[in-house]
Specification:
Elements (H helix, E strand, L loop, with lengths): L21 H27 L4 H9 L18 H14 L1 H20 L4 H14 L3 E4 L17 E5 L2 E11 L7 E9 L6 E8 L5 E4 L13 E11 L21 H24 L13 H30 L4 H30 L10 H8 L9 H13 L2
Parallel strand pairs: 1-4, 2-4
Antiparallel strand pairs: 2-3, 3-7, 4-5, 6-7
Length: 401
């Protein structure tokens, strides 16, 4: 048996009623095609821990890497719901590809929404993405800081010089590291005796003093190339300092993009579901008159999987629809974004566990994709908000505190 992106029963889709627009249909169909290509290479890149440059060339050639680039710059201007629908499909082929692409696509989507960058700089980035497949991602996490979402001050330090800035530090979990054209580096800004503050700097790949240390050798998402980057006396011009969040319009709310990461983990879970169903339909042990799909215990485990995916997709796409339709209610429903992440990632873990119980010991073989799905979804636990932070946000919203 091979990856379920190319074999097995017909995929169930995202949720009854989707796609609802021609754009959604187009993006989902493109992601399906790319998922098949990604699946054919996924096992090799996973085993070797190599970055899938070949698949990302396909993403660029197809225009997928420009889905969130504004239309006026040659992209498609996809919103969070449209991107989530596509990314769930892409993740069925290769979770690492989908997650790494998400980092770039979400970053560009949030920049397009906020429009805080100088117009010429943002347009240049967009044109490079469309024409050349340029990639951008944040370099924010650090070994000592952990997730920057918790608000700590990074140890990476940016100091003003006569000609601009000097940056020193180390960043971890920088997905896409060997393929990035631009690093959006979070640092503690030290300037004219003022208290240090968080600030972001645009650092092009190849800048002297910037190097990648290939530290990424993880249980799951092995092909994301989320290596450490080291900055040693990196000198940047004054205009490398990017506008801060305080310069964003109050009408701009980027929090809705969080649904896209949840869609990736839901897509991997869907691939595990498809594999388990196909296996149950075809596996006929000696002594049985029919396949194991006829066994009630198998039917019950598949039913549990269906319920978990139904729950994940209902919460995920229902929240994405509400976020898009009711911007005036964003603060009131923001807790639902935490719920989406918590439900989707934890359900994906449960789905892959159940799928392994359906397939049995055969599912542990490296020659089959199921054990990769099982490993990859566990990376979802580390995405913000982590479970404790998500539950705190949900509980506070319910209690009104």
């Amino acid at each position: 048996m091979t990856d379920s992106a190319t074999t097995g029963p017909a995929y169930h889709g995202a949720l009854p009623g989707y796609p609802r627009t021609s754009r959604q249909a187009e993006f989902m169909a493109l992601a399906d095609e790319l998922a098949g290509r990604a699946a054919s290479r996924a096992a090799i890149h996973d085993r070797d821990g190599t970055f899938p440059f070949d698949t990302f060339r396909d993403l660029h050639d197809s225009g997928y890497l420009a889905l969130t680039v504004p239309e006026e710059y040659g992209g498609r201007g996809a919103n969070p719901l449209e991107l989530a629908l596509a990314q769930e499909r892409l993740a069925r082929g290769d979770g690492s590809v989908a997650l790494a692409a998400t980092m770039h696509l979400m970053h560009v989507g949030m920049l397009a929404q906020a429009r805080t960058w100088p117009a010429m700089l943002f347009e240049r980035l967009c044109r490079e993405i469309v024409a050349e497949g340029a990639l951008i991602n944040a370099a924010a996490s650090e070994p000592g800081l952990g997730s920057p979402s918790r608000g700590g001050l990074p140890s990476t330090m940016a100091v003003r010089t006569e000609n601009g800035w000097r940056i020193n530090g180390r960043k971890s979990w920088t997905s896409l590291a060997p393929a990035l054209r631009y690093f959006n580096v979070l640092a503690a800004l030290h300037d004219d005796g003022q208290p240090p503050r968080r600030a972001n700097f645009l650092v092009p790949a190849g800048t002297p003093g910037l190097r990648i240390e290939e530290t990424w050798d993880n249980l799951g998402m092995r092909a994301t190339a989320s290596h450490d980057i080291v900055l040693e006396n990196v000198h940047l011009p004054h205009d490398a300092l990017l506008p801060g969040e305080s310069e964003r319009s109050a009408a701009v709310d980027p929090r809705g993009w969080a649904v896209v990461t949840a869609a990736v983990y839901t897509g991997i879970a869907a691939a595990a579901r498809d594999f388990a169903v196909a296996y149950a339909r075809s596996r006929q042990p000696g002594g049985m008159a029919g396949p194991i799909a006829e066994l009630q215990t198998v039917q019950h485990r598949i039913a549990e999987i269906e319920l978990l995916l139904f729950q994940s997709r209902s919460v995920l796409y229902g929240t994405a629809e509400a976020w898009q339709a009711y911007p005036e209610r964003h603060d009131a429903i923001a807790w639902q974004l935490a719920a989406v992440k918590h439900i989707a990632t934890n359900n994906a873990i449960k789905v892959t566990d159940l799928a392994l119980r359906v397939v049995g010991s055969a599912g542990l073989a490296r020659t089959l994709p199921l054990e990769r799905y099982f490993r990859d979804v566990r990376a979802g636990l580390g995405h913000p908000p982590m479970d404790d932070a998500a539950l705190t946000q949900i509980g506070r919203a319910a209690l009104g505190v």
